[in-house]
Amino acid sequence: MSWVFLRDLLSGVNKYSTGIGRIWVAVVFLFRLLLYVAAAENIWKHEHDEFECNIKQPGCENVCFDHFFPVSHIRFWALQLIMVSTPSLLVIFHVAYRENREKHHNQKLYKNPGKIDGGLLCTYLISLILKTGLEIFFLVLFYKLYNGFKIPHLVKCDIKPCPSTVDCYISKPTEKMIFLCFLVATSCLCIVLNLSELSYLMFKYSIKCYLKRHVQKQQ
Question: Which of 103, 112, 162, 215 is deepest in the core (most CB within 10 A)?
């Protein structure tokens, strides 16, 4: 899978982010995207082929794998990365709208089309809320699908057509567990960064409004 489009998206939104937003971009790019491409994708590449059960009943191994891994971890994280990065497009589209509006009217309508204020501030806040909501949604979904954030060494399966309770073994469980913990930790870090940036912008805007009203009263 080519991740060039996601890299370009993160680079584009980085121009309009606050300091906290730039840290979020760095975490997503360095500790999630690069880790996924460089290591995690290879570790889970042959997870189905390396899933072994102690019985060769036709179909048993397949149904057990599907039961314990309803969605491939690697595809789940790929979808998560794409979805949590997509709300950033709202900011890029809004800036593009401002620039096109200036070209259409052939005059300077904004001091800086990429400055986070007015309508762009609302768009930015909405993107932060969406990113935070999607991060939490995917963490909860992962927890529900796999009964926790863990990679067991052994799973017991008694689903038909297995004739009895079958022991199935997952390859490289310790290595996978380490990467799972790291990816979950970076996802939680991104949630904290999004909430911090959201609080910072709302506090900054509130102070700005308060000072503006105070000046108006003084006048």
Answer: 162
